[in-house]
Amino acid sequence: MAKDVKPTRKNLMAIEDRIELSERGHDTLEQKRDGLIMEFMDILDQAQDIRSEVEADYQTAQQKLDMARAMEGDVAVRGAAAALKEHPEITTQSKNIMGVVVPQIEASKVRKPLDERGYGLVGSSARIDETADAYEDLIDSIILAAEVETAMKKMLEEIETTKRRVNALEFKLLPELKQNQEYIEQKLEEQEREEIFRLKKIKAKKEEEEDEEQEIEADEREGATTASPKAD
Amino acid sequence: MSQEIAVIGSPEFTTGFRLAGVRKFEDVPDEEKADRLDDAVASTMTDDDVGIIVMHDDDLDYLSRGTREDVETSVEPTLVTLGGGAGSGGLRDQIKRAIGIDLMDDED
What we know:
The complex is a heterodimer of chains A (about 230) and B (about 110). With about 230 residues, chain A is mainly α. Chain A has one domain (about 10-180): Helix Hairpins (Orthogonal Bundle), CATH 1.10.287.3240. Chain A is built from three helices and two strands; from the N terminus they run ααββα. Chain A has helices at about 10-70, 75-80, 125-230, and strands at about 90-95, 100-110. Chain A has a two-stranded antiparallel ribbon with strand order 1-2. In chain A, strand 1 (about 90-95) and strand 2 form a beta hairpin. Chain A is rod-shaped, with a radius of gyration of 43 Å. The mean pLDDT of chain A is about 85. Chain B is α/β, with parallel strands linked by helices. Chain B is built from four helices and four strands, in the order E-H-E-H-E-H-E-H. In chain B, helix 1 links the parallel strand 1 and strand 2. Chains A and B meet through helix 1, helix 2, strand 1, strand 2 and helix 3 of A and strand 1, helix 1, strand 3, strand 4 and helix 4 of B. Strand 1 (about 90-95) of chain A pairs antiparallel with strand 1 of chain B.
């Protein structure tokens, strides 16, 4: 609040420095926000493509699973599912997009050859194999979607934070600082005007006193000149 | 550190993933979802070995508000929902909030 600041030149200079810094920070943050939004738009296009791929793969996988269930029976499908030995694994590394650390997910053991699935070649049917294949494809798409959607979530968080900072500078900090600057400038001008007025008053008073002194001196001199011829 | 994929949902939903080798799964039958799904999601989220959680988009409606928000905004593990189209899993709302526009509007 403007009332809390002491109207001194030192404070005015400090506030001017803070305004300059805040304006520079505001511009930089605005650029960062715009840059992040542009990067986000690129990822969004990619994410939408991956998302449609995931949905398509899910539909295919579900159809194949329904078919396998209908033809082989639920027990056979569940039995094959329970026999799996190799499990898909993911390892996460990170990369930096404009200061936002986003994950890069790498998968292993997602696609397995028939003989490594664990349920045996004799005991299962081609439909179960096809279903397993379809679900392996789906897992591949899910891993891609997870990578892109996590990057999007992280970027959205950063965009929100940056936006909040820009807004705080633009609508809270800078207006308050400018209000304080205006208040101090007005107060200093007022003090200056009072000082000038006081100096003028003092000067006028001094001149008045000098005039009075001169008048007295003149009167005294006049008195002395008029008094001296009479004495002669 | 290598992590795994976890699947949460009805047995019909998880069976396919198990055929692809996913071993971390929570079978919650449809009639028990209202009671058990919240706990299943919460316990999976605390598992450090899980990097990705896969759920059906419709199942998110069974979750309590807090758990749903936690799982939707979680980055590690990250949630991937199926069957909800683009912008599912809270991403659409987050985009609207951060950017100010519904960028997934034309995807409906």
